[in-house]
Specification:
There is one protein chain. This protein is of the alpha+beta class. Helices cover 37% and strands 15% of the residues. The protein has ten helices and six strands, in the order αααααααβββββααβα. The protein has a six-stranded antiparallel β-sheet, with helices on one face. Strand 2 and strand 3 form a beta hairpin.
C-alpha cells in the first residue's frame, strides 16, 4: 500500500523518468519523503532572543534616552527675525533706561584708553586708534556730524544696537533712529575721569574748585570704514591705509 502511494506521487513519477526505478525510489525516500520540516513560531518568546537582538534593543533605548536629554535646536536667523527677538518694544524706547548703559560704556572706554582719576594721560592717534577701532559701541552716545543725507546730521542718541551696517540709537525724545554707517561720520565724547567725578568738590576751597578741568576727549568715526559687527571687530586687526574719501 505504501509503495503504491509512493508510485502515484508526482515527484516519484518525475524521478522515474530520469532514473531507474530503484534510484528513483531511494532519491524520493531520502529527499522528499523523509525531508525534515523546521517549524518556526510566529511570535517568539522575548526571553529567547539572541545576544544580537538584545544589543540592538539596548542601543535603541540608549539613543532614545539621549534624544530626550538633548538641548533644543537653536533658532535660525530667519526664525529670530520672524519672532522679533531683537526688536525693542515701544515701552522700552526711553532714553532714561539706557543712561546707566552709557555710564558703563564711559568706564569701559576709560579702561581701554588707560585713563585714571588724578593722572594725566596722553591719548594719541597711534595708540588709541586701534583700540577705538576694535571697541564695542553699545551704550555710546553718538552724534552724526556729516552725512550725504542732510536729514541725518545732528541726530544724537545712545547706541542700543551696533549692527554691521547701521547704528540704532535712542534719542532724548525717546525715538528709535536707525542710521546707516555708510557715508556718515559720527562724533562721540569721553569725559575725563577727573572731570566726571563730582564727589568731594563741594568741600574743596574755592580757589581749588575753580581750577580749569581737563577737556573731554572728542573722537570721530568714519562709518564707511566701520562696517563690521562688534564681535568681529574684537578679533580683527586694523591697518593704517590711505582713505581718499576723508
Amino acid at each position: 500500500m505504501a509503495s503504491g502511494k509512493h508510485m502515484s506521487h508526482i515527484a516519484h513519477q518525475m524521478l522515474s523518468q530520469a532514473h531507474t526505478p530503484t534510484e528513483a525510489l531511494n532519491i524520493f525516500t531520502d529527499k522528499v519523503l523523509h525531508k525534515p520540516l523546521n517549524l518556526r513560531p510566529t511570535s517568539p518568546d522575548p526571553t529567547s532572543q539572541d545576544a544580537r537582538a538584545k544589543r540592538r534593543l539596548k542601543r535603541l533605548r540608549k539613543a532614545e534616552h539621549l534624544r530626550r536629554r538633548q538641548k533644543p535646536k537653536p533658532l535660525t536667523a530667519k526664525e529670530k527675525r520672524v519672532l522679533g527677538i531683537y526688536d525693542i518694544s515701544k515701552e522700552d524706547q526711553r532714553y532714561e533706561i539706557y543712561e546707566p548703559l552709557n555710564r558703563m560704556w564711559v568706564g569701559y572706554m576709560w579702561e581701554i584708553l588707560g585713563l585714571k582719576e588724578g593722572e594725566h594721560a596722553y591719548v594719541t592717534a597711534e595708540g588709541a586708534g586701534p583700540k577705538l577701532a576694535s571697541a564695542d559701541y553699545h551704550g555710546a552716545e553718538l552724534e552724526v556730524v556729516r552725512s550725504r543725507c542732510v536729514g541725518r546730521v545732528g541726530c544724537k542718541g545712545i547706541v542700543v544696537k551696533d549692527t554691521k551696517f547701521t547704528f540704532e540709537m535712542i534719542t532724548k525724545r525717546n525715538v528709535l533712529r536707525t542710521v546707516p554707517k555708510r557715508h556718515s561720520v559720527f562724533r562721540f565724547e569721553i569725559p575725563h575721569p577727573k572731570a566726571s567725578e563730582s564727589s568731594g568738590q563741594n568741600d574743596m576751597p574755592n580757589d581749588v574748585s575753580n581750577t580749569e578741568e581737563p577737556r573731554h576727549l572728542t573722537f570721530e568715526l568714519n562709518g564707511s570704514h566701520f562696517e563690521t559687527r562688534a564681535t568681529d571687530r574684537a578679533t580683527k586687526k586694523f591697518k593704517q591705509r590711505r582713505m581718499d574719501d576723508l
